[in-house]
Specification:
The chain is mainly β. The chain has two helices and 16 strands. The protein is about 10% helix and about 50% strand. The radius of gyration is 20 Å and the shape is globular.
Length: about 270
């Protein structure tokens, strides 16, 4: 059975502890790890730029409402090992304007399949090429569509779940949190996604997905990628303050050694 929230205390029975690490991926002010940007359709003219005046310094202008037919990406290099992960939480600030089409996605990219760096085009290996759906092989994508309403989808390896509505307020900075919890024995994942009215997961929280079940996930090492698309209609999209927290088991060597010494002492006393 998959447990929703994991404790950071030592698990004596399993002989391991859960260790949580948090990493700034990109704040577009020079902090974080290396990232790659790319435009795979029309060349970005006004979009694809770091711009001053964000919620905490500069931000990245991913999509521009004057540029139709674009497919733009920001892909972040691995910030550290995620092997045997049991939970992962991604957060970012974002702002949309002139909201018409088509949307954006957050991708947890399997690095064994897609490499540890560089942009990976949506739909790689014969999946859906729409950036706002976030289809990547052996990877988890959460798509936030803005054409004919605001609807979100979760997919793993390109297999999509049902639509879920969300609220998007034009011109206002908000934030997103996506949390994954995984059962190591089965690979089953529960996904939560929340859109907040303020930056840094503040303000009014709107739950988009709660305990969305993804069975049999084999993705181990992963990294993050944000992708967006504009079609005949378009929108503005800005992103900032990308962060990732990951919890993984660590061998409790000192704990097990202590238990062994206690057992040895008890035998000697007998």
């Amino acid at each position: 059975m998959l447990t929703k929230k994991f404790s950071l205390s030592c698990l004596v029975v399993l002989g391991s502890c859960l260790s949580s690490s948090a990493a700034l991926l990109a704040d577009f002010d020079g902090g974080g790890v290396p990232y790659t940007e790319g435009s795979v359709k029309t060349a970005a003219v006004n979009a694809g730029q770091v711009v001053a005046g964000g919620p905490s310094g500069s931000y990245y202008h991913l999509l521009d409402g004057d540029e139709g037919g674009a497919g733009n990406y920001v892909s972040v290099a691995s910030a550290g090992s995620t092997a045997n992960w049991v939970s992962a939480t991604f957060t970012m600030d974002f702002r949309a304007d002139r909201i018409q089409a088509d949307g954006f996605s957050v991708g947890f990219l399997d690095t064994a399949t897609h490499g540890a760096t560089d942009v990976v085009r949506a739909g790689t290996t014969r999946l859906n090429e729409a950036e706002e759906r976030g289809h990547y092989s052996n990877s988890i994508g959460v798509g936030f569509r803005t054409f004919n309403g605001t609807n979100a989808k979760v997919n793993y390896n390109g297999v999509e779940g049902s639509d879920a509505g969300y609220t998007l307020t034009a011109t206002e900075w908000g934030s997103i949190e996506i949390q994954l919890d995984r059962d190591l024995a089965t690979g089953d994942v529960l996904l939560d996604a929340t859109v907040f009215s303020g930056t840094g997961q503040s303000g009014t929280a709107g739950n988009v997905f709660t305990d969305f079940a993804i069975p049999g996930v084999t993705m181990e090492e992963f990294r993050m990628q944000i992708a967006g698309r504009t079609g005949g209609a378009a929108m503005d999209l800005d992103i900032d303050n990308l962060n990732l927290s990951v919890t993984i088991p660590e061998p409790a060597t000192s704990l097990l050694a202590g238990l062994s010494l206690l057992a040895l002492g008890a035998r000697r006393r007998r």
